[in-house]
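Q: How would the structure tokens look for this protein?
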Amino acid sequence: MLAKTGDKFEMDSINGHHYTIEIINVNECRPPEMIYACDIWMDNDPKASYYLQEGNYYFCGDEILLKCKRM
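A: Here is the predicted structure in token form.
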């Protein structure tokens, strides 16, 4: 397990945007590619929250977080 609840990561994408990822929940009972429930903000704009836009958290595994920088 690479992260715990409350950890934050950041990533600069090839589309020129900066993303901040916050781990909201870790559940080892989920499939490995969905172990982390995350909220993601684009360009540090709280209104651009994945949760606020989609009504759910983004689920990912270690493979995504390994591409990010820990904050």
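DSSP finds two helices and five strands in the chain.

The helical segments are 50-54, 62-65.

Upvote if useful.
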